[in-house]
Amino acid sequence: MTAAPTLPERQEWTVDDLGELPRDLRYELINGRLIVPSPVPAHQDLAFEIGFALRGACPPDFIVSSDQSLRINRRNEPRPDLVGVRIEHYGRTPVPVEDAVLAIEIVSEHSEFRDMVEKARLYADAGLPAYWVVDQNRPEISLTEMVLGPSKRSYEIVNHTTGVFSVEAPWPITIDLPRLSARRAGILERIRLR
């Protein structure tokens, strides 16, 4: 019997070190820290719902992908929950951040600071045009829309809503957040009644 594989011990990781990881390990590299996420079904369910809304009017030159690595620099290879990328990357990973037009993170129980602050700084500094954060940890699901400001190095929050969210860029997208909140409330009620 062979021993189970173990992860190399490091305080600081770079993209060069990622080749030592098991090929089937899902990871993110954020500011040199290796993060191994394990989302719960509620998180994944919401990601699917939002992904379907994104795909509805996605132009033919782009594709919506989930759990896709974006190469930013030697210390950062985040894996947004959803991302809009140029179609040329249909069979590739990681995708260069320059070929992404939108990244979306769904806040998990322990990821609010990382999603709202660390990743926002990281994506803005890399020049990603749009970044959305969906918060599912309150009674009503909310979406915060951020776009690059005039300096092209930081985001401006242009919308924060729990209502129906509609934008024209990067393509026309509408997400019915009240419907998603009601759906989640119905699921939680069924669980409570069991």
From TrEMBL:
<dbReference type="Pfam" id="PF05685">
    <property type="entry name" value="Uma2"/>
</dbReference>
<dbReference type="InterPro" id="IPR012296">
    <property type="entry name" value="Nuclease_put_TT1808"/>
</dbReference>
<protein>
    <recommendedName>
        <fullName>Putative restriction endonuclease domain-containing protein</fullName>
    </recommendedName>
</protein>
<feature type="domain" description="Putative restriction endonuclease">
    <location>
        <begin position="17"/>
        <end position="147"/>
    </location>
</feature>
<dbReference type="InterPro" id="IPR011335">
    <property type="entry name" value="Restrct_endonuc-II-like"/>
</dbReference>
<dbReference type="InterPro" id="IPR008538">
    <property type="entry name" value="Uma2"/>
</dbReference>
